[in-house]
Design a protein that fits this description.
- There is one protein chain.
- The protein is of the alpha+beta class.
- It has a single domain, classed as hypothetical protein PF0899 fold, CATH 3.30.2320.50.
- The chain is about 40% helix and about 30% strand.
Length: about 80
């Protein structure tokens, strides 16, 4: 399941950004996911929950928005 490796990368990116900002916790992550990316949003959401079990992203809400194309990117995040 490549969604797990993608989710782990998203968690790493988000947690690094949160550390740079001095945040203790990530509350939510908004992700843009290309319709042609061959990534299942539900599988990605489950994998994100697993990948974020530890660290400041634990319990963060993942919002996946489908967009045209192949790309996947973190659009923004809410940190506390």
């Amino acid at each position: 399941m490549h969604e797990l490796s993608l989710a782990q990368s998203v968690v790493e990116i988000v947690e690094a950004a949160a550390r740079r900002e001095g945040a203790a916790r990530v509350a939510s992550v908004r992700l843009e996911l290309g319709e042609l990316s061959h990534v299942e949003p539900e599988s990605l959401a489950f994998a994100f929950e697993v990948a974020a079990r530890e660290g400041c992203a634990r319990g963060a809400r993942l919002e996946v928005h489908r967009v045209p194309g192949h790309a996947m990117r973190v659009r923004d995040m809410e940190i506390l």
